[in-house]
Amino acid sequence: DAGITQSPRYKITETGRQVTLMCHQTWSHSYMFWYRQDLGHGLRLIYYSAAADITDKGEVPDGYVVSRSKTENFPLTLESATRSQTSVYFCASTGTSWNEQFFGPGTRLTVL
Amino acid sequence: GQQLNQSPQSMFIQEGEDVSMNCTSSSIFNTWLWYKQEPGEGPVLLIALYKAGELTSNGRLTAQFGITRKDSFLNISASIPSDVGIYFCAGQLRDEKLTFGTGTRLTIIP
């Protein structure tokens, strides 16, 4: 099925653990993004990627690592999770214009 | 980081009423976008605006790119129950980085 998927949808982890959130899109869009959504802050850009093997920092990159070895996948890793990283994480992909932008369903992450 | 001021934060209206919300920034943007988010889902793009003064409609939704390039407006006419959700604005200056507003939560009173 065409679309953008995220996994897991829900994750509970402990402080200090490594966590990887997955994002997969089937449109072959060049651009992919990771946002976090917190009350009172809207969505904030963590990292984005213009193409495979090209990534760049967004507004709040500290504590996160990304990679993009394949166009369709854009995993986000929290190397040592902290409580402040408790949030809802959204992945998005964009084609040749903003009218071709789609968000995934989100991953709700809780760090205890 | 920069944030957009979106107002109102929440709205309680009756079905059939018109809705207006806006987004303002201290900086200019080259593109304004409006999204709707429903519970448990990601945002969905409603309207994209690409030049100052542009007025664009999508069904009962109409959005405008402010002349100063520092603001944008979204109107919903004749609201219906499925309009319930959180509406976000976003601005783009360069690259593919978007700055999002904090959202307007729309509730429709039966």
Report on this structure.
The complex is a heterodimer of chains A (112) and B (110). With 112 residues, chain A is mainly β. Chain A is built from no helices and eleven strands. Chain A has strands at 4-7, 10-13, 19-25, 31-38, 42-51, 54-57, 64-66, 76-78, 87-94, 101-103, 107-111. In chain A, strands 2, 4, 5, 6, 9, 10 and 11 form a seven-stranded mixed sheet that branches. Chain A has a four-stranded antiparallel sheet with strand order 1-3-8-7, with no helix packed on it. The model of chain A has no long low-confidence stretch (mean pLDDT 95). Chain B is mainly beta and 110 residues long. In chain B, 0% of the residues lie in helices and 54% in strands. Chain B is built from no helices and eleven strands. In chain B, strands 2, 4, 5, 9, 10 and 11 form a six-stranded mixed sheet that branches. A five-stranded antiparallel sheet of chain B has the order 1-3-8-7-6, with no helix packed on it. In chain B, a hairpin with a 6-residue loop joins strand 4 (31-37) and strand 5. Chain B is globular and about 40 Å long. Chain B starts with a strand and ends with a strand. Classes of the chains: A mainly beta (112), B mainly beta (110). The interface between A and B is medium-sized, with 27 and 25 residues.
Strand content of chain A: over 45%
Helix/strand/pairing class of chain A, anyone?
A: mainly beta
Oligomer: heterodimer
Helical content of chain A (DSSP H or I, runs of 4+):
under 10%
Return the string of H and E elements of chain B.
EEEEEEEEEEE
> In DSSP terms, counting alpha (H) and pi (I) runs of 4 or more, how many helices of chain A?
0
One letter per element, helices H and strands E, the order of chain A comes to: EEEEEEEEEEE
Q: For the largest interface in this structure, which chains are involved and how many residues does each contribute?
A: A-B, 27 and 25 residues
Query: Main beta sheet of chain A: strand number and arrangement?
Result: 7 strands, mixed
Strand element count of chain A: 11
Termini of chain B, distance in Å?
39 Å
| Count of individual helical segments of chain B | 0
Judging from the principal axes of the Cα atoms, what is the shape of chain B? globular
